[in-house]
Amino acid sequence: xxxxxxxxxxxxxxxxxxxxxxxxxxxxxxxxxxxxxxxxxxxxxxxxxxxxxx
Amino acid sequence: xxxxxxxxxxxxxxxxxxxxxxxxxxxxxxxxxxxxxxxxxxxxxxxxxxxxxxxxxxxxxxxxxxxxxxxxxxxxxxxxxxxxxxxxxxxxxxxxxxxxxxxxxxxxxxxxxxxxxxxxxxxxxxxxxxxxxxxxxxxxxxxxxxxxxxxxxxxxxxxxxxxxxxxxxxxxxxxxxxxxxxxxxxxxxxxxxxxxxxxxxxxxxxxxxxxxxxxxxxxxxxxxxxxxxxxxxxxxxxxxxxxxxxxxxxxxxxxxxxxxxxxxxxxxxxxxxxxxxxxxxxxxxxxxxxxxxxxxxxxxxxxxxxxxxxxxxxxxxxxxxxxxxxxxxxxxxxxxxxxxxxxxxxxxxxxxxxxxxxxxxxxxxxxxxxxxxxxxx
Lengths: 54, 377
Ligand SMILES: Cc1cc2nc3c(=O)[nH]c(=O)nc-3n(C[C@H](O)[C@H](O)[C@H](O)COP(=O)(O)OP(=O)(O)OC[C@H]3O[C@@H](n4cnc5c(N)ncnc54)[C@H](O)[C@@H]3O)c2cc1C
Known about the structure:
Strand order of the largest sheet of chain A: 2-1-3
Shape of chain B: globular
Radius of gyration of chain B: 22 Å
Number of helices of chain A: 0
Distance between the termini of chain A: 13 Å
Bound molecules: flavin-adenine dinucleotide
Strand content of chain B: 25-35%
Number of strands of chain B: 25
Strand content of chain A: 5-15%
Oligomer: heterodimer
Structural class of chain A: mainly beta
Distance between the termini of chain B: 35 Å
Largest sheet of chain B: 5 strands, parallel
Helix content of chain A: under 10%
């Protein structure tokens, strides 16, 4: 599973960790997060994330 | 009451509060804000209209929710009118006084006012916060004509967003291509072509000589008719409050690597601050500032470190990413690629890469290229 990074603020979503505090269990792929989810740091939409390289 | 007092509830103020609460569960935090204290994402203001988002959808949390979540106090719709540094006390416009042990200025920037003959008789909107957005959005009529003054980063984003949402947008800018200060001509022309392709009408290399209700007269005699006017010609850091308190200000409130102003008990971050690398009115540096300052305020003095700063321009008509060279840096653009997919490297006089701009499919190289750029701080 790939990590995704917010293009606006740099927040990284790591599927291995999920975001349990927001109800996203560890092991959730980015693709499976609801579309209305927002970046927990800067609030932009899910479409403003891209695959992290390297 | 004492503790950390933060003025401002934008991404700067609230990100700092969140990071500080993470590091210190006990420290007293108070946020004083002139607006309603809703947590919202300012970058969404220029992307929200096409997504059908109104103010209620943009406000992600109320001030009350932020208070409960971060265990702090938010004083909304209150403007700080004076800072008494000797007494370490703030005065609010309602007359209330608030004591602080550390003060953080996260007061943002004002949109530059657009002035031209006749502008005092015409409402020229600016959209820099939720309240502005509410007024602007409520006034738009379906399929209406929008005069957009300024084709910089925020202007170009609004042009794309409003056009996608069915507004008929005319953009006026004295620069010869959009994002004139960030892009070399080849990429700027592609962006103009792409935005033109979705219906934006450009008046580039042109200025307005007179505004009348519903009409703008340009310097070539052309007339642009409009229902609503929006200006996006830049931001000016808010320095008046700090200057009146005797803090050192320049373009912004001057801070050192610890985000400290000229008073060791007063800090600044975000759009109001001027770092060693100048004002940096973007979210990425603001987040780095919030993290460093939170550590410092939690008792672990931490210097701000900033790698190169790539900014993604939210123009879906043609994706663009820029990593501008430091202001005044000498060098030349080297452009490769064709059509929409271009790569421009800004190479300094000594042959070092100092910045870049990417468009179309090549924006994917943003992350790897950014690693090759010199650090900002
Ligand atoms: C339309 C738009 C799109 C953008 N898009 C992007 C993007 O895609 N990527 C990116 O990186 N950046 C973007 N930016 C820039 C980014 O949003 C800002 O850099 C950032 O949000 C600034 O946050 P701030 O907290 O410093 O300021 P603000 O959000 O302006 O907050 C200032 C706060 O201070 C309060 N305040 C001011 N004076 C007083 C006073 N005297 N007393 C009490 N309270 C006071 C205000 O009420 C407000 O709460 C965009 C900006 C705009 C306008």
